[in-house]
Amino acid sequence: MYGFVRHLPRAGLAVCAAASLLAGCMSGPSGGEAGNAVKAADRTETGAAEDAYTLTFFTNNSDRTVGQGKMEQDLIDAYMRDNPNVTIEVETLSPDPQYQDKIKVYNASNKLPDIIGSWGNRSFLKPLVESGALAEIDRGELGDLQFEAAALDSYSIDGKLYGFPRNSDFWVLYYNKRIFAENGLTPPATEAELMNVVSVLKTKGIVPIAMDGREAWTSGIWFDTMLQRVTGTWDTAAQAMDGTGSFDRIGTVEAAKAMRRWVEAGAFGDEFLNQDYGAARNLFGQGKAAMFMMGEWEMGMAADRSFPADVREHIGAIPLPALTGGKGSANDLTAWFGGGYSVSALSPRKAESIRFLKWMFKPDNWARGVWQNGITFPAQRYEDFMTGSESALQRELKTIYDGASSYSGSVSQDKFTPETQKTYYDALQKLEGGSINPETYASVIAGAASKSAAESR
């Protein structure tokens, strides 16, 4: 499915860390998360005897000490050790809106880094492809990397591949099992059960659900899920976005009403619209919120030492519950292929950049590393890397994914053109803030979707 933003809660800029600096501040794979990922990797075609060269690598994974940021860095360091003639300079920037703005600046000046973190969705990928900014990747050369075919499709335009997909993403509610047990609560499977949980937690002064309300992409995924829960199908959103249908339907209004119900019930606390990803994550991680609405990529919270043990050791996951009167079920999963990497078409080291990414995505590297270190679900086959010692949270997430009765594919927000996506995001936040009603919301996003479909033809 499509690739929406690989959002991480990190902020800040880490500028161009050259190999010598990285060696001083980052542990190598033998002692870090990528230990298993690189120990079997053989030396690549490049060698110390070749001419020295530098690759520039721009990523939105700003935290290089945990999670995907650390996995990226461990693999980069391992590649440089195996290829002493290669230096990979890393620049990071987050959150994603700032990162994507910097991509636009680089592209406008024809200075796109050799390798960039990217997303296989229309709003991000198509403008870069149409401007000739991205190098085509030969899909026929990737067979040994065991990518899911649909993941490669998500990075393809007009039959041409423009990136290496990284993750298989899906939307869940994380919950603190200790808080639930202490308050006599069980994980909700229906909206009525959720409202009871919200009511109980509010009386105890606990935020029911931590939510990143400042960045509208989270609300976009939530809306798609609620629309499916109302209508029982993913087709309503898909057809609205391709122009064969419309959001100006009763199902959209009912989904918007359901979203307002949750907000008005206090499910997200009082200030969630001013709360960004990092704040929401920390609210849950410090035990001040009982649940956290986010993607499967946060399964690494179970090993995050910045969280107290009585939180990280008691994290579970459930799908979003069914809605009262709705036709969808909790087993219908909002799932898509997440971010990845693309290569600049103007890179003087285009072949070398593609060679590095092929190495990075050898199954023993990225797929093994992120799975066995409990970081995320790769966009490659990973069954061979299951050890039986997966964390309880990993197992719960895998059960949710494997047990789904349907999958959404690309979510709506990634199908909008950049201009119409802004209209969509503005409408979402106005709906959540109560400044427009559900009927107006449905009309506004229907117009944006229709315009987007026409512009994309």
UniProtKB/TrEMBL annotation:
InterPro entries: Bact_solute-bd_prot1 (IPR050490), SBP (IPR006059). It comes from the Bacteria. Residues 1-23 form the signal peptide. PROSITE patterns: PROKAR_LIPOPROTEIN (PS51257). It holds the Pfam family SBP_bac_8. Keywords: Signal. Coiled coil: none annotated. This is ABC transporter substrate-binding protein. It comes from Paenibacillus aurantiacus.
